Amino acid sequence: MPGENLSRDEARERAALLSVDGYEVFLDVRSALGDKGSTGATGGSGAGGARTFRSVTTIRFRCAEPGAASFADLIAPGVTAVSLNGRDLDPGAVFDGTRILLEDLAADNELIVDAQCAYSRTGEGLHRFVDPEDGEVYLYTQYEPADSRRVFANFEQPDLKAPFRFEVRAPEEWVAWSNGVGELVDGVWRFAETKPISTYITTILAGPYHYVTDSYSRTFADGTTLDIPLGAMCRKGLAPYFDSDDVFLVTKQGLDFFHDHFDYPYPFGKYDQAFVPEYNLGAMENPGLVTFREEFIFRGKVTQAAYERRANIVLHEMAHMWFGDLVTMEWWDDLWLKESFADFMGAFSLVEATRFTNGWVTFANNRKAWAYRADQLPSTHPVTADIRDLEDAKLNFDGITYAKGASVLKQLVAYVGPDAFLEGARRYFKRHAYGNTRLGDLLSVLEETSGRDMASWSRAWLETAGVNSLTPAVLLSADGLITELAVIQEAAESHPDLRPHRVAVGLYRRSADGVLERYARAEADVDGPRTVVGELVGSEAPDLVLVNDDDLTYCKIRFDEGSLATLRAHLGDITDPLARALCWSALWNLTRDALMPARDFVDLVLRFAGRESDIGVLQMLHAWAGSALTHYAAPDWRATGERLLAEGALKELRLAEPGSQHQLTWARFLAAVASSEADLQLLQGLLEGTAKIDGLDVDQELRWAFLEPLTSHGAADEKTLAAELARDDTASGKRHQVRCLAGRPSAAVKAQAWAQVVESDALSNALVEATISGFVQGSQRDLLAPYAEKYFAVIERTWADRSIQIGMDVVRGLFPSLQDSPETLAATDTWLADHADAAPALRRLVLEARDDLARALRAQACDEAAAR
After folding, report:
1. pLDDT at position 43
2. 441-450 contacts: CB < 8 A, separation 24 or more?
3. What are the backbone angles phi and psi of residue 63, rounded to the nearest 5°?
4. Could you tell me which residues come within 8 angstroms of residue 830 by beta carbon, excluding any fewer than 6 positions away?
5. Three-state secondary structure string covering 258-273
């Protein structure tokens, strides 16, 4: 609807007119039980039972121009009553389904809205989930960027902050939670008033959650003590797997770290953390009640990388208590003011305060890969983006805003120094507590603390898009000494800006015992197209020159010919894990940029991945090798590449230490690439217990991982999947079963899966995601071919009719990337030309998919040329 997509101009106009004194929100969610036993035909959120709940909101606000008109936001099936300053308004006249018209405002106003709001099945608003394991019902909210209006009437924009008082009437056997501490009074949960916060970080949970508690205490230098009640919760069915002690450990370590460095006590009272089902995000920073996807509770054996990722996200959300919740961006243009900082501080605190001391390796190898990809799409944007409306905002939770922004902040710390950076943060919190800020507010405090010109730094790093590449150029004397070492900086034609980089240049050579180690290092300020690093002149000739050693800046690393030859022969000999991770990342970028054949990258993985000590890097290499084979390898080499990867995976699986996380990782990779009869028979034997690999525990999660390739290659049928679901009759098991069902190699199966996702809204968000994942199989290109044309015929209607989350899932997930041909590229261009007036956010998604396809075709041509 036109009023649903709030524009920046409308928000600014409303903020200039209105200021909000407070909200009182009453929700009656007793209807959530509905037909409690019904989970619908597909499980999950429930197709039967409850549909709506009562929501009564009182807003007290002021108007700078009495007599003016404005509007409140509400997305609801119906409104029972609206009262403005004691006048009863006709709901049919003032409510259009997304907005409530407010005319003839007074200087001081009171708005009361009594509405029937809808439970969500898409993870937006108040999500209702029915657990197929025991029939229990669980509720939670998710609002960012603008879905609190699906739960209560409000002014849905980040700069109209206010205190909130929530009351919730829930079924008698339930407990309810919100941002503030709650108590049950006469059958109603009443929650303490919040500090002034934005609408999108308010939250409600209700249901029979499993809840455990702990506490944190901190005594400050002035003698004052801060006591924070800690809580953690999940569904009852996940309670046996819930390692809350580890969650609390990381939580306390994070609170210590941020108190040590921010000099501003945690401001929001209690600190609950809820792990909830069918969650669209990784987590959300609601103050006092952070929500996480429940997949961070591990039902089976996982690697240390999984625990590291969870700890990083716990700390990321905690950083938001200051960057985002205490001080909030004025509008979504400055989303980076919270997300970039949280991403950086999450990694910073992870390394400094927890057992995950290799967190910067993960950041360099994993998070920055996300940024590099996003920064080369046609939709790339400056870190400070131009966000015209809420649809723009939804799509800008991307690799630029998170990972590039965090990388830029890492560069900033190298530029101004950690002391000046943290002192700037401290002044920023104290100066703008409970307020809203723009870019200039942060830059001004950093100028104060560092003495640096932050305006020029901002123009270079925050206000331009694109990623630079840095390549070493080495000249040697006749006796093998460096006479000149320069760093060549280049930029894409589309984004030609060359930036100032603070980099370390490392020189590596092989020792007598065969290891590749650094023997010289120099830091330099790279600026312009060519920078000479004079400090390294006179050094002995290197085997490898690593620009951006220690990962100080944000750039694509390139290699001179000698360095690249060294990596092809000796990559596994690099002893430093961060340097090794940087080299792997650079080689992957060369592959994506069609500068290295995909088969060469696969060969490097086969020869050196088995020596990778960092489990997170190893998992990333497996993902990259899979992508190289599926998207970047020449079509006539794919079968060969798949066989080689499967053989390599099985070899490393058998060589891995029994029971180790490396063994588990190679087992999962074998499942991802298995296709031959022998491989499938081995997986079947491991499932049935007739085959054994010493130390490999085939738990329930690994069973599903083995069933996916068996199903997609026709070696397991619907009856087998039904039996497995009976063995694992849980919400997680249902998602796995749905994914496997959609992956079966049958035209009828594909037609059914397509209809379930595109033509029906019966599936919940989690099952839509699972169905799409199963539908798209690299081994089933022929079966999927008919859906390329269908895709372009339905996406505009899907975008208009479905929620933005489901629209994004469908448009991204079902794009015919496996029909990787010039014809598909032409069909995409035709759709874009014929739909110039389509929603900008929809066009952005299609443009991004088109760019990925064009990149794949270039890489395939590069790989094919290598075979000649």
Report:
1. 39
2. 442/337, 446/412, 446/416, 446/420, 446/421, 448/424, 449/416, 449/420, 449/421, 449/423, 449/424, 450/415, 450/416, 450/417, 450/420, 450/421, 450/424
3. -125, 125
4. 792
5. HHHHHCCCCCCCCEEE
CA proximity to 151, closest of 140, 163, 165, 159: 140
What's the pLDDT at 353?
98
Pair of tokens at residue 320? 């938001």
Provide the strand spans (E) within 146-239. Answer: 164-169, 175-178, 182-185, 188-191, 204-207, 210-219, 225-234
Local structure of residue 400 (DSSP, 8 states): I
Task: Decide if 728 contacts 700 (C-beta within 8 A).
Answer: yes
Do 774 and 738 form a contact (C-beta atoms < 8 A)?
A: yes
Q: Are 346 and 564 in contact (CB under 8 A)?
A: no
Q: State both tokens at 239.
A: 């309670």
- What tokens were used for 222? 């002035």
The per-residue pLDDT for 186 is 96
**Nearest by Cα to 74 from 126, 113, 19, 124:** 113
| Beta bridge partners of residue 604, listed in sequence order | none
328 Rama class: left (phi>0) / alpha (psi -120 to 50) / beta: beta
Closest CA to 586 of 615, 564, 610: 564
Q: What is the pLDDT of residue 134?
A: 94
| C-alpha span between 556 and 587 (Å, rounded) | 10
Which residue type occupies 631?
A: H
User: Which residue stretches of the chain have pLDDT < 50?
Assistant: 1-2, 37-48
Distance of CA 479 to the CA centre of its chain: 51
**Count of CA atoms in the C-beta half-sphere (13 A) of 457:** 22
Catalytic residue positions, numbered: 317
Rounded to an integer, what distance in angstroms lies between the CA atom of residue 264 and that of residue 588?
41
| pTM, 2 dp | 0.95
Kindly report whether the peptide bond that precedes residue 145 is cis, defined as omega within 30 degrees of 0: yes
Long-range Cβ pairs for the range 826-832 (8 Å, 24+): 827/788, 827/789, 827/792, 828/792, 828/853, 830/792, 831/792
What's the sign of the alpha-carbon dihedral 278, 283, 289, 294?
A: positive
Count of C-beta atoms within a 10 Å radius of residue 210: 16
> What is the rounded distance in angstroms from the CA atom of residue 112 to the CA atom of residue 100?
11
- Contact of 180 with 189, CB cutoff 8 Å: no
Report the Cα–Cα distance between both ends of the chain, in Å, rounded: 55
Type of residue numbered 615: I
The whole-angstrom separation of Cα 791 and Cα 811 is 8
- Starting at the earlier edge strand, list the strands of the sheet with 164-169: 87-89, 78-84, 108-118, 52-63, 18-28, 164-169, 188-191, 182-185
**Both structure tokens of 713:** 């290659």
pLDDT of residue 34: 83
Neighbour count for residue 65 (Cβ, 10 Å): 12
The pair phi, psi for residue 2, each rounded to 5°, is: -55, -40
Phi and psi angles of residue 182, each rounded to the nearest 5 degrees, phi first:
-115, 155
Length of the chain: 868
The angle at the Cα of 712, spanning 708 to 716, to the nearest 5 degrees, equals: 75
Q: Can you list the alpha helix ranges (DSSP code H) found in 486-608?
A: 561-570, 577-592, 598-608
Separation of alpha carbons 228 and 215, rounded Å: 6
Residue type for 246, please? Answer: D
Residues 6 or more apart in contact with residue 602 via CB below 8 angstroms: 625, 628, 629, 633, 641, 644, 645
Q: Are 363 and 404 in contact (CB under 8 A)?
A: no
Q: pLDDT, tens digit, for every residue of 136-165?
A: 999 999 999 999 999 999 999 999 999 999
Tokens 């490898």 correspond to 544
Concatenated DSSP letters of 785-818? TTHHHHHHHHHHHHHHHS-HHHHHHHHHHTS-TT
